[in-house]
Amino acid sequence: MAGGRIRARLKRSSLYTFGCIRPPRETIDEPHQFQGPGYSRHVCCNQPGIHRKKPLKYCTNYISTTKYNVITFLPKALFEQFRRVANLYFLLAAALSLTPVSPFSPYSMIAPLVFVVGLSMAKEAVENWHRFMQDMNVNMRKVLVHTGDAGVFVRKPWMKLEVGDVVKVEKDQFFPADLLFLSSSYEDGICYVETMNLDGETNLKVKRSLEVTLPLDDDASFKDFKATIKCEDPNPNLYTFVGNFEYDRQMYPLDPSQILLRDSKLRNTGHVYGVVIFSGHDSKVMQNATKSPSKRSTVEKQMDKLIYVLFTLLVLISLISSIGFAIKTRYQMPNWWYIPPDHQGLYNPHRAALSGFSHLITALILYGYLIPISLYVSIELVKVLQALFINQDIHMYDEETGTPAQARTSNLNEELGMVDTILSDKTGTLTCNQMDFLKCSIAGIPYGTRSSEVELAAASQMAMDLDGHNHEFSRTGAQSGPEIELEVVPTPKGVSSQNRIKGFSFEDNRLMNGNWAREPNKDIILLFFRILALCHTAIPELNEETGTFNYEAESPDEGAFLVAAREFGFEYCKRTQSSISVRERHIPSHEPIEREYKLLNILDFTSKRKRMSVIVQDDTGQILLLCKGADSIIFERLSKNGRQFEDATKKHLNEYAEAGLRTLAFAYRKLETSEYSSWNDEFMKAKTSIGGDRDSMLEHLSDIMEKDLVLVGATAVEDKLQQGVPQCIDKLAQAGLKIWVLTGDKIETAINIGFACSLLRQGMKQICITTNGDMVTHASEVIKENILMQITNASQMVNLEKDPHAAFALIIDGKTLTYALEDDMKHLFLNLAIDCASVICCRVSPKQKALVTRLVKEGTGKTTLAIGDGANDVGMIQEADIGVGISGVEGMQAVMASDFAIAQFRFLERLLVVHGHWCYKRIAQMICYFFYKNIAFGLTLFYFEAFTGFSGQSVYDDWYMLLFNVVLTSLPVIALGVFEQDVSSEICLQFPALYQQGPRNLFFDWYRIFGWMGNGLYCSLIVFFLNIIIFYDQAFRSNGQTADMAVVGTVMFTCVIYSVNCQIALTMSHFTWIQHFLIGFSIVTWYIFLILYGMLSPGLSGNVYQIFLEALSPAPIYWLSILLVAVACNLPYLAHISFQRSFNPMDHHVIQEIKYYKKDVEDRHMWRREKSKARQETKIGFSARVDAKIRHLKFKLQKKTSVFSPRAVSAPTTTPTATAS
Amino acid sequence: MDEALRTKPSSRKPKYSRFTQQELPAWKPILTPKWFITSFVTIAILFTPAGLLCLWASEHVVEIVDRYDDDCLPDSYATNPETFIQSKNTNKTCVRTLKIPRKMTAPIFIYYQLDNFYQNHRRYVKSRSEKQLRDPDDEDETDDCKPIENLNGNEGGPIVPCGLVAWSLFNDTYKFFKGNKVIDIDKKNIAWESDKKYKFGSEVYPKNFQKEGLIGGGQLDESKPLSEQENLIVWMKTAALPTFRKLYGRINTDLEANETITIVIQNNYNTYEFGGEKKVALSTANWIGGKNDFFGISFLAIGGVCFFVAITFILLYVFKPRPPGDPTYLSWNRNQPAQ
Questions:
Q1: What is the pLDDT of residues B242-286, one digit of tens each?
Q2: B120 shares a domain with B36
Q3: Is A708 a catalytic residue?
Q4: A947:B109 CB<8 A
Q5: Which of A76, A780, A985, A1216 has the CA that lies 20 to 30 A from A1138?
Q6: CB-based burial of residue B204 (10 Å sphere; 0-12 exposed, 13-18 middle, 19+ buried)?
């Protein structure tokens, strides 16, 4: 009995892998003859201890992705900090401040530096800690490990695993290391593995153990198991493995099918036993892990340039001042008897050049205030807080998977607001990779009433937009209302989503519950159902709980077909090597009859053939060829009398495609026994033949068989888009973003999805650039030539297009892309792609994804964002300016490589349009303001110095300067960076056009930067000269005292504090209590500091002793001059923004006003109209679809109203598909 | 694993708060024409009277300034003024006559004003010892005072007060006469209270001051503690610019208009070497301090500018009004004015 069971299982497992229809693998039974370097790994299985000491000591299974450890943290983190030019400069300045040339006391240089660097390092430390915790999470996962030689397995954390350990991995668990597969719960030693984490592919892969290890199938059998593996050294190649397995003094060769890779998952298999070969960082997946490149945002790069500009300015004024100093020292100082020359030191008239030089250093330190020391740390702090807001955004939290959005790096926040092109993966990102059977057309009659998501969304969109567009229509004088309504797809309301069957969304009573038997073409319908249930390669799995079957299918489409067949009453229940059994239930009340079909042949699906067929013999002995395939392929293979329903079906297929559904056509052919057997003989012969032309022979034979078909019908399957994807794409397109889809899928699927998410639509001219199948044999030059021609032709076509509404879509496949990405062609390709409204790249490898990303990034010079969910997207995610990973699904690779992780594609809209927009504006304004305030302050030092004979004396107390950047002006600007909102999040979403302020870089262009710097210059002039003229000689108190340096300095400093804080209040447009508090706090802190500092003993406070309470506060002129200077400083800016707002307002200004005056409530119509208009010219997305449709309708109306007018060019929807190939 | 997943969602869901969702109530002021025209007009309205007030106050200050460095140089020394000023034997007395233009009410402040004197030079500013000035025990704290730190190298002990600032003490003296009658000059309370009390010690007496080598400026009375040497205290408050005025003393009697006063100056201080000017100034002071027309003028100027800007805006607004929140100004409407 037991033997029988084993045999049954054996068959089954080989069936699934279609071993039955494939020639036996030509196994090399010789062990590999490798030696030498690269193949030195020696693994002793099940002998704990051996691998703990040299020479067989390999790295443990502990993984660490942290940047630092306890020891390396300090040096490494410090090094990182001082790689920034500004920090290095401040370090140098701090070092020099210990020498006598320093204009300040050392502590005032060192303290801020320590503070700033310390804060940045603290941030690094925290991030590192998080990484460490994440690692530990993985390291502490438990796995069953064989201990000693007792034959007992105990749970151990992954990190404790060692090379040579025998582990038992249970169903749905991840493999803890790279394992040699010994045996599984299937007796024939196969197991199914999901490698989603490695390559992003969701279908299961089969692994097969060596036959010799099959008996090791229970815990106890490992008691005495001993073996040795000699194999290659750790390497990152996922698909190769070379090694020998020595067991019982026999050598067996190993190949990749015996290797279970770390981070892949055991599926559909109870458990497997394996031996650890590569552990920890040696494992292939870890070897594959590339260091994620550190990315810097555009704004930050521009800021670097700005810092260089300031450095230049700094050096320039330092030079001026040192030359001035040298001249003064040389020619004037000898006359200053009160400053006798200092023959050793810096003030020697005879060595003026030297004095000048040493003064250069002094000046470089003194004017260091031009470069805001706290800029980096403030920006970092702001970004961390911004990231916190992103993480906390409840609108980006996915209830289903329980994942919030996560900003994994905080230094790209503002880059989110500048994205120009989105490169998206398809499977798992745009789609759920789950198919739903939605509609079908049988015998020319369409079935299935439910609308696809695309239809629903289009309908609602149209209904919403009708209002606004009607308006336009009425001007054309045509009464179009009813016509449009007719076009609106009826939206089924109240569709119960309860009892939803996964993969089946079909709704039509004519076919359900056996009602099909009353339909006119019931025979054809029966045949259709049988094709559904028979023409596939899936295996059924009985769900013990519900008693129904689940299907493990090669593709999700097939799964959907089988579910549909089951629901129609044709439950596929059993498969043997030679038969398929289906439980047919024609009338619901009856018991099902189990019918067995003899399975004669399977003609495989390949992307080239685009069809698959089965040849079966039913219980009446009739041999049938059942075929399903791409409609174009099927239609050209129909027999003359098989074309009865062709026209109707074609029409339906078009409708389905338009609704964004994946379509397949079904056909059959009745075969005579003699005809079949003669064919089968040849087929068998070809199959068993060995040689290069075997495949082409088989293909040829299949071709002979699959003709003269009779069309039965067609199916429409919805590749379920992820929730909200079309809407999100629509909004993103309206925000002016270009969207490229890069997918590993085949071209048809990709196009279907393109339709589903409105990247493609009817009437769009599709430019397909492909290499024809027969060109494979050609030399690469010929292919290249051909592709080049295709690209040039297409470019010409695009350039010659006159119709402004014409939209082009570029579709290119991976093979072609290899050529198109070569250096001499890539720019042509890119230029074509840029001209197209949407670009879809199919069948691209992960590497190509990265290359395309790089091409777009470097070719256009604009910001790119890559989004994906699988390991195959890692390259692209790392290459793009911003990488976004889809989290919440099991694979973590993409997320680990990403900069931002979101649970659903649709959150991208909010991430970009709200957070990106805000962050960009915040950071841009913040940086501008930072430079403004430091210039305003720093230059006053320079002016003053010019009045001190360029001697390097500062008018301010050291403490003032120390506090200026760190305390007195830093908090409001941080508040600006964290809390500023030009418009609320709802408005950001409603007016996607606002997003364009980022990609156009309106807030951080040189014009604006220099405007701010000019403002700083003006402010410094006002602060300095007004105060100097007011205070230099006259008494400022009624009892006659004149102002000394400390008084002048304090007044000037107070003016600076007031001016820059008023300035930031003018800059902000959003004041919560926090901003109010912080601006007030900054000014109050200054006074508190002044009072407290003045109260310290004179030894500490020096000239500032009692200055505020005794000298300044009783003087009215002090208060008045603050008022005067602060107002004078901010006047030009106030005038500027007033002018800009009144006569040249930006979009957000107008919207702010509409909101402020509640015009949106008063004039809802206007508000809605503007909302719908607030978008960039776009040719993709729903709105573009609706526009196109309306243009089309308008056009038709025009034709109707003006019958006699000459016919214009063809309407958009009837434009033939242009295929330049 | 599964359990962990199941419990996670609730804990990972961000908690709603208006803060975390960035929905805190906020004041979102809009810079409407009404608003900014009002603010410009307000500034104009505030600043113009303030300016007038300051000018008026400044106008009430009576100030007489007399430059005497050139005139007090005898003609015979015109080519080598340094010999004159450095010689101990020359007669440095100089008589100046001033006419009081308007009535000056007491207190009348007497200032000396130096020009082109870099009291703010870094080397000069640093050349002092706060500790030594404050505390007799710290008289050796002379590190910063080079080269005026110790007498005769190191042997003579520290100089108190040390450093260039004290050493270059201004030493011209003024005597005021109305006719033949001496006008008393009150030299008390010309320094800040805090300086007298806390920064210049009442126990610290001048020592070794101006005793050897190059003699800088004035001498100090060794019998008086530093806290009472107010001219030194005033001098040691270094000025911000190379042109500065310092308080010399106070006349506590009114001077009537058109009165003539004579000032007998001891022209001791060497400004000839560096080409500086010396002036003596008599000035009254009120709440605005001394005569400061510039202050009031600045106020008036800003007020005027604001007024001008406000008018410009109003005019522009009359001719090219933009109703707030007018959607035609949105970029997508401006780019396609087709409708």
A1: 999 999 999 999 999 998 999 999 988 988 888 889 999 999 999
A2: no
A3: no
A4: no
A5: A985
A6: buried
